[in-house]
Amino acid sequence: MPLAVSDAAEVDSVDQEYLWTLNFGPQHPATHTTLRLVLKLDGEKVVDAVPHIGYLHSGFEKLGEDLDFNQYVTIVDRMNYISPMANEIAWHHTVEKLLGIELTPRCKYLRTILAELMRLHDHLLCVGAQALDLGAFTAFLYGFTQREKIYDLAEYASGQRFHASYTRVGGVMFDVNADWAAQVKRFTEGFKPVHAELHRLLTRNRIFIDRCKGIGVLTPEDAINMSVTGPLARASGVVRDLRKDEPYLAYADLDFKVVCAKGGDVYSRYMVRMAEMMESIKIIEQAIENIPAGPVNVDSVTDVVLPTKPAVYRSIEGLIQHFEVLMPNRGFPVPTDEVYGATESPNGELGFYLVGDGSNRAYRCRTRPPSYIHFSIFPHLIRGHQLSDVVAVLGSLNIIAAELDR
Amino acid sequence: MAVGLPENVFVTKLDAAANWARTNSLWPMPFATACCGIELMATASSRHDIARFGAEVMRFSPRQCDLLIVAGRVAMKMLPVLQRIWLQMPEPKWSISMGACACTGGVFDTYAVVQGVDRFIPVDMYVPGCPPRPEQLIAAVMEMQEKIKRTGTITGKEFLQRTTAMGPQPFDIDELRRRREVTPVPGLEIYGQPPVAAK
Amino acid sequence: MPSLEEIRAKVGAEIDESSFRDNRRVIVPAEKAFTLLAWLKEQGFNMLVDLTAVDYLEYPKAVDRFHVVYVLLNVDSGERLVVKTPLNPPELDLPTVTTLWKGADWMEREVYDMYGIVFAGHPDLRRILMPDEFTAYPLRKDYPRKGYGERHNFPVITRSES
Ligand code: SF4
Fold it and tell me: Do C160 and B185 touch (CB under 8 A)?
């Protein structure tokens, strides 16, 4: 069982000579990708942790100033790469907010379904990897089997299984068909027993509980003060979910619950994620039942959206429109103004601060990455715990390096 | 001589025997940095299962591995780590550069991303794609096994001629671009290395 | 949400306001920024959602070089407020807001790393994303996207020598 955070760790200076320094990462299996922690250890107790990041910094924001609104979606994809489409949806949500585009109902529903599929995507890997780090390999494989099915759905919809680059300004790349909807339904049916199995594997597993309960506790006040959002904040009892609080897409029409917990520890985060998966399934089921017919892109006469590929290849209007949108200096009218837009991505509030200068590329596209902020609280969470709790806490934070460093 | 061989004894070249052993026990070191790393995980887990091809023993310690899989983009800050890991791996060793980013920098033509790890460490096999599908990676691993079988020697002397960092010969225009980019910044030192000498 | 009159009465008359879509923005000079933010925190804006900067070097009709942007959120009521502070070289410094919101810690470090804006009083202002040896500020508009070749300033390891 975890030790209580002892006062000694707080009072004693970290310069004591007998303290160990342990370098954790940047290439370590439990960091999933590339993070580095310099831990100060007193025996097995972590006295302090200093995170070093930037090992995957690839200049996303600089690229965003170089590519236009439709092109940048390919880059945004690569940000939180375990739920790629959630980023696209967040990005185009902000772009459409800047341009003042109102989506068609069908597109709203479609994007909602995709966003929730991505939530499953993310949570499955997070829960699986967390279990993997704590020594339970099976849950990881169960999770990955389901993820492969979501990959298949993404591939069916967009042609790429991983980085779909599916959304476009004012719509999506192309519409899905009834067969896709049927496959989504089949997937949701098949998901429920697996979810129950995951519960049976982990939720009351003695070892798992012992390593998770009471570890890395985050109080609601701290959560708010440290800008924590998403499942982490909800596990600490901060009732905030952008899907409810600032409804975007089709969330206002759908019935679902915001899952919260009170503990604020690793176990609560796991429980919140597990329960959120079920809520996502609920949302997907409702949305796929009620998905409206009609066009999926906003009216293309307004020169805003890309025409479909067949239209480009087979009709002169489509071709002209394609060039209109894609040629530099021709595209769509962009206000010279700036806007902050955010969506509830699986990891928390994924926001973009977008500055438009009248051209069809962003003047500045700042990302507000949830992982970045969540990793900054790590030293606060780990102080006073054991060395073996480091991976448990890291797993529960679900740090995605590309989103962390951009 | 008329000494017959017992039935269960083969005669072969030492090289071939070594290659046979090395081929079928590739231990990958997954240097997974970004999205390609997730595909690497997918390759190793339930549906694709790289264990079918004898390369599933992922070791996270370079000292135990002989196949480095660089999966994902390598940023400036990460390159010294990659080089250190490559140097730590014992001979014989090979490396696969997985994904567009590791091969050429991919979509990330920015200030912080190394445009192809083959500039700084040797690469034996390139897997294109962003990300490559798991099938592609499996194909690359099998190809790697083929290559080891074909060209490997027990002393590793096939590596001796490889004195440049480049894998395939670049096109002229590519070469020009690369040259232009390595124009050194006066006085800029990174990781205690002297700045690149001007050409 | 406090109205502009209230803010002006509290902090000073030179404060300006604008809005676009659902974002309401308050523009405050650098020396008043901390006072305003501290006061806004008392008014219930208990979460700092985002802290970033924008370089307006090539922006049409821009007056100031940089703006530091604070996106505040009142978790209880769900209101958002954007506070912007203009900055011009060579005085690129602002008081830190880590004393108000602990979440500002890394965000300020990132702004420092990317733009070179110094937050006075920050407990640990180092580069965060770029290597410590890096000298430029990459997100400034006068820094080229491909950099000046820093990305290839490394020794080469060839096969014959490793
Ligand atoms: S090649 Fe593509 S998938 Fe692989 S790391 Fe680069 S961006 Fe990610």
Answer: no
Q: Which residues line ligand 1 (CB under 6 A)?
A: A 78; B 34-36, 72-73, 99-101, 106, 130-131
Q: Complex ipTM, two decimals?
A: 0.88
Question: Which residue has the CA at smallest separation from atom 2 of ligand 1?
Answer: B130
Which residue, A12, A3, A17, A4, is CA-closest to A47?
A: A12
How many domains does chain A divide into?
1
Give the minimum alpha-carbon distance from B190 to chain A in angstroms, rounded to a whole number: 15
Residue A323 lies in a domain: yes
- State which of A56, A78, A83 you would mutate to test the pocket of ligand 1, scoring each by most atoms of that ligand within 8 A of its C-beta: A78
Chain B nearest CA to A252, separation (Å):
32
Domain region containing A93? 60-405
Q: Which is the closest atom of ligand 1 to the Cα of B36? A: 4
Q: Which residues of C are less than 8 Å from B114 in CB distance? A: 151-152, 154
Q: What is the CATH number of the domain that holds A166?
A: 1.10.645.10
Residue whose CA is at the smallest distance from ligand 1 atom 8:
B35
Q: Does A367 reside within a domain?
A: yes
Beta strands B28-32; B67-71: pairing state = parallel
pTM greater than 0.90 (yes/no): no
Whether A32 is in a domain gets the answer: no
Classify residue A21: in a domain, yes or no.
Answer: no
Q: Which domains does chain B have, with CATH numbers?
A: 14-160 (3.40.50.12280)
User: Bridge partners of C118?
Assistant: C93
A147 touches A50 (CB < 8 A): no
CB-CB: which of C20, C46, C145 is closest to A339?
Answer: C20
Residue bearing tokens 């995170």: A51
Task: Give how far Cα A93 sits from Cα of A168, A248, A308, Å.
Answer: 10, 9, 20
CATH number of the domain bearing residue C49: 3.30.460.80
The number of distinct structural domains making up chain C is 1
Beta-strand (E) ranges in C6-161? 16-20, 23-27, 47-55, 66-73, 80-87, 93-95, 118-120
What is the three-class DSSP state of A62?
Answer: helix
Kindly give the confidence (pLDDT) of every residue in chain A, 406 residues in length, as a single tens digit, with 9 standing for 90 and above: 333 444 444 444 545 667 788 888 777 766 667 788 888 888 888 888 888 888 888 888 888 888 888 888 888 888 888 888 888 888 988 888 888 888 888 888 888 998 999 898 889 888 888 888 888 788 888 888 888 888 888 888 888 888 888 888 878 888 888 888 898 999 999 999 988 988 888 888 888 888 888 888 888 888 888 888 888 888 888 888 888 888 888 888 888 888 888 888 888 888 899 999 999 998 899 888 888 888 877 765 555 566 777 777 777 777 777 766 665 444 567 788 888 888 888 888 888 988 888 777 888 888 888 888 888 888 888 888 888 888 888 888 888 888 888 7
Q: Supply φ then ψ for residue A277, to 5 degrees.
A: -60, -40
Query: Among B38, B74, B101, which is best to mutate for testing ligand 1, by the most ligand atoms less than 8 A from CB?
Result: B101
Measure A255 CA to nearest chain C CA, in Å.
20
